[in-house]
Structures are given as structure tokens and as C-alpha cells.
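Internal tracking record. Fields below are filled automatically when a chain is submitted to the structure queue. Please do not edit lines marked as system-generated. If the sequence contains nonstandard residues, flag them in the REMARKS field before resubmitting.
Queue: standard
Priority: normal
Entity type: single polypeptide chain
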Amino acid sequence: MQLDDFDKKILESLQSDATISVAELAEQVGLSQSTCWRRINLLEQAGVIGPRVALLNAKALGLEVTVFANIKLSAHGRRSLSEFEEAIAVCPEVVECYTMSGEMDFLLRIVSRDIESYERFLRETLLQMPSVQEVHSHIALSRVKHTTALPLAAVR
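SYSTEM-GENERATED OUTPUT FOLLOWS
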């Protein structure tokens, strides 16, 4: 989908506050309310705008530990990859999972209450999955930057 300047302004505003009313958004970006609403619908239909959700504060909920785990599988066939992906998809502790190039096969971002909870997840779930050969855990000490906003200036 080709995005024009109005689309980008709409997306910038929604990235910072998805609860803004269409009337307020239209005023911010310089469009009529009905035109703005139609553009939002087109962006949703094109998949540019996904589900609108509330972003929760992990620390406020007592989820104090973030772990980045590199996973190496013992087998690399299509079946092994699919089995791992299906198994990891149902783990609520795993909030992100990426297929990687290089020495490791997957990178996981795991959120946990504390180190003991992570260790329990590691021992009882992650290391019990078929074809998991190695897990290298990296505990995040502090978060320097976190955003859900995409760099729209880079979009053509």
C-alpha cells in the first residue's frame, strides 16, 4: 500500500495514542472526520493497522525479569522448526519469538516474575521441548529504550 503524508500523520498519531477520537485525529492531521475515518478503515483493511490493544506495565504487574534466550535446535528439518514454533506459541512467558540466522535458530524474549520463575520455565518447559539442544539465557539488567512506534520516516 502506498502511504501519503496524511496516512503517515494518522499512523504517527495512532502510534502514540490509539484512544484518540476520529474527530480529534482528523483535526490534528488536517482532514475532515469522514475522510479520516475512511483512511483509518483502509489502513486496517490493508493490514497496516493491526489490533488495538492496551500496553501493560510489566513492572507494575510484578513481572520484574526480562530474559533474552537464544535457542539452538538439534535438528533443522521443517518438521523440527514447526514443532518448536507450535510449542513456543502457547507459552505465555514468551512474548516474542524470532527465527534467526547464524549459530542460533531462535531468539525469545521471555518475561517472568523473578529469576526463580524463569529457571522453572527453563527447566520444566523450554528444556523439555523436543529438539532443543542449547539455550543461552541473557538477563536484561535495565531497559534503556522501549517503544512500539515504528520509524515511519523510513517508509516510502
